[in-house]
Each structure stands twice: as C-alpha cells, then as structure tokens.
Amino acid sequence: MLTLESLKLDMGKVKEIISGFIRGMVAGSRAGGIVLGISGGVDSAVLTKLCVDALGSERVFGLILPDTRVTPEEDIKDAIDLAESLKIKYWRRDIDDIIDSYKRSEFYIHDHKLALGNLRARVRMSLLYYVANSRNLLVAGSGDRSEILIGYFTKYGDGGADLLPIGDLYKTQVRWMAEWLGLPERIVKKPSSPRLWEGHMAEEELGIPYERIDLILHGLFDLRMDIDTLREEFGSDVDRVMEMHSKSAHKRTMPPIARVRI
C-alpha cells in the first residue's frame, strides 16, 4: 500500500541540490539573476525563497500580476508580504487593462472561460520575459512535478520558463518544503489555484486531491508499479491520471517538425 511516507525527502539535501542548480543556471547563462511571478500561492512562495537563499535578495526580482476581477485580494497581499519579507525588488502590475485590450479584438469570443484564463497566464509570461530580456535575467517557473506530469499548466503561459527549480517535487513535497522553510502558514495551507477565472480551484477542476494524484504518479513514474495493482488501491482515479498525462504530452515536448530531409 502506498502512503505519503514514501514521498518523504531529506529537505536539507533537496535545498542544497536546488540551490546549486539555480546558481549553476544563472552562472552558465551569464545572467544577472532571476525574475519570477509571485502569486501568493505555495509554489511561487517556495520558489522565491529558494532563489533568494541561492542568489541573495539583490539578484531576485518579482512580478505580482493580478487580474483584480479574478485574483483574491488576500493573494495579492500574501505576494506583497512575501516579497517584502524576503527584501527583493518587486513590481505589481495589474493586467486588467491588457486583458481588456484583447476583449476589444474582433476574434474575441465572449464567455470562453478556458481561453480567457489561458490568456491571463500568457500575458503574465510575456511580462516576465520582458523584464528578463531588458535586465539580463532568467525566468524561473514555479511548476512542480505533479503539474508537469498531468499537464496542469498553460502551454506558453506559466509553462514558459528558462528553468524549473521545483519541477522534480510533487505538490505534496512542495508543501512540506514550504513548511520546512518556515513560510507563513496561510501560504503553506492555502488551497492550490491558478486563479485563471473567478473561484478557480485546482482540486475542484482536477476532480482528485493532490495527495492522491501524487501517490498515483509516484507509483506510475517512480516505482513503475503494475497498473492493475495501482487500480486495486486507487480505482478509476489511476485511469483519470493516466489520461491527463497522455493528453498533455504535447505540453512537455517541442512542437513537431515536418522532416523533409530524408
């Protein structure tokens, strides 16, 4: 029987590995530092703290990019409080007006919730890369292993980054890391949400709690367990997770090329 105990890691060693990875990526790229989006959620909080510890606060820059019609005020406050507590330079830039400019386009379709939500993620990515390009920085993404394996991210949105420092940690492990790092409890315990539309909650959309998703993914990809054995323990959720992984394969690869030199 799989339990969360099997996901336990030596957090000190994990932090050491990730810190070295961050420093190596920045040095190898001859970049001045890191820019990242700070949402007020646990993933971006852990990422910000790890980057600061690895590089120093003067080499980490944050963007807080709410659409105030869908981003809760508490998330904005948590993001600002985190940036200020870590003493990094940050900018808050509401994206409401940018989104509205798209809405005035002739191709805009009203009430297409998913397309509009993904647009918000892609607008944020564009702003992060503007800051990165104009200041010789790398964009650090906050995607975790759970989100990557099931494709729970926006292609060329929050999936657009130069490095993914916590990309090998499952969501459950990210929360443990947040607690171990001493981040505020309200962030550690906050339910996950991309905040792409009003009331958007990750586990409600996915239909399975992250702790369960993580154990299924651990069984499938780390332990290479037999599918039928996993089904005995997790039932049809195994097929649901496998379907999410299969359908999102295109998000984890470069675009296909039509080969003409044969």
Helix-residue proportion? 40-55%
The SSE order reads HEHEHEHHEHHHHHHH
Largest sheet: 4 strands, parallel
**Fourth CATH level, the homologous superfamily:** HUPs
Q: Say what oligomer this is.
A: single chain
Q: Average pLDDT, to the nearest integer?
A: 96
Provide a brief overview of the structure.
With 262 residues, this protein is of the alpha/beta class.
Q: If you had to describe this structure to a student in words, what would you say it looks like?
A:
The chain is of the alpha/beta class and 262 residues long. The chain has a single domain, classed as HUPs (Rossmann fold). 51% of the residues lie in helices and 6% in strands. It is built from twelve helices and four strands, in the order αβαβαβααβααααααα. It has a four-stranded parallel sheet, with helices on both faces. The radius of gyration is 19 Å and the shape is globular.
Please render the helix and strand layout as text.
Layout: H1 11-29, E1 33-37, H2 42-55, E2 60-64, H3 73-85, E3 89-92, H4 96-103, H5 113-135, E4 137-139, H6 145-150, H7 171-180, H8 185-188, H9 202-206, H10 210-222, H11 227-234, H12 237-247
Parallel strand pairs: 1-2, 1-4, 2-3
Helix pairs in contact: 1-2, 2-7
